[in-house]
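User: Structure tokens for both sequences below?

Assistant:
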Amino acid sequence: MSTKILWQICHKKELNNGDVTRYITRLLQEHGITTKQVARDLNIPVERARNWYYKDIGMTAADLVKIMREYEFVRHEVKSTLLLDLR
């Protein structure tokens, strides 16, 4: 996945929380991070992480902030997308 894809997702006419969640979970999976590891790192229930990965349920803004705080590569992708948006 590239920043360009996330940029395209974020620039649809209607931004869907599910699209952003799917992109972030793909990033996590590409880095070999499991649902149990995410739950442990973010101090959240495993069921909530499984909902993002497997049930296509969008994450909350608080969860996004926790993920960005915990994982540098996610923070980098989100920042890169915001910089593209400002140009």
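Moving on to the next sequence.
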Amino acid sequence: MKPTARLRCWALLAPVCLAWPATAGAELLSFDATLETRTQELVAGEEVSFDQSFEDFQVTATDLPVRVVSQLVLPTEDESLLAMAQGFADFFEPVVNLDGNPEELGLEANCFSIDTDVSYHVTTSVIEQRTIRFTRLELGTTSDDEREIESSVFLSGAVIVWSEDPDRDLSGLGARMRFTIEQLRPGPNTTDSEDPAPAETVFNALLDLDGLPGGEVSAASAGDLQFFSGGTGLVLDGGTPSPVLEDVFDVMGRVHILLIPEQEITYRYFARPAEEFELEATFAVEVTNLPGGTGVSAVFGRGFEALADTVQEAFGDVDGAGFEAGINQAQAAIGSAEPARELADQPTGQLPLCGAIGLEAFGLAALTLLPFRRRR
């Protein structure tokens, strides 16, 4: 077996992040990020209006942070809303954190509709590319042989689904999270980056949440991500009483919650001294609701920042900001300690939601791509 260079990586700040290890270095030659979000309105299942936003850090936006936003609303004569959808993607300046998580990227998608015909499909994504090079010293070798690098990805997120009718058929409603890291190396007989070998997937994670008949939902995943799923008891039982959460839950109908506590997952790839190669991370979130009183909200790599607007518009005279803060607090708390509540009806599982691709660079932005919660 080839030797492994254990490179402790820290991550960058963005919807998807790159991180480097603290015990070794790697040279970050260049980086780029592409952000995109699209909000699609459907009327009786047919695509109608849409709003789309796109930025390329090296082309259309030269300053950090970069944000893209898409939004559609369906107003009434009194300016209240029958339906709304919005998507966000953020890319922050890579920052090396001693705690390991660079918190470089953040994604969020929200939609709801009380109109009997209107629904939404919202997608938001970030693709980040980094060109990297290691020295022999950084790889801990005196030869030109390739070494296996172990790096880390940091994952966190949440999904909320609600239906005013607790027993309605939720088929067609859903949320998706995807995260992939690919390594692009020079061809086997050349060091020319214009003649690369086929891209190799070094990290792949996903989470699917689908609506079912009878007001139920199911969650499926791939990877080693820990998550908690259940009803409102997931954030209410066994914790500090929260009148705000209870009040909002009372008017939302049936609520399903999935919480992904912040966690670190390792992955591996190979590199040779002086070899220039790319790590490309793709992270995407999408949500789809149904007409007539349903909503879906999903966040990855950060806490909710727009959930308050969605809740406020959907349910009127409720404390949307307090509800958003309560959900974010619950998501953070569930990662810091085992929940003090019975989880028998709240199955846990393993799923890959976001990742970090790691290169080792001391004093540079870590080369590990990963999702994160941006600390403000």
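User: Anything stand out in the second?

Assistant: The CA atoms of residues 303 and 328 lie 5 Å apart.
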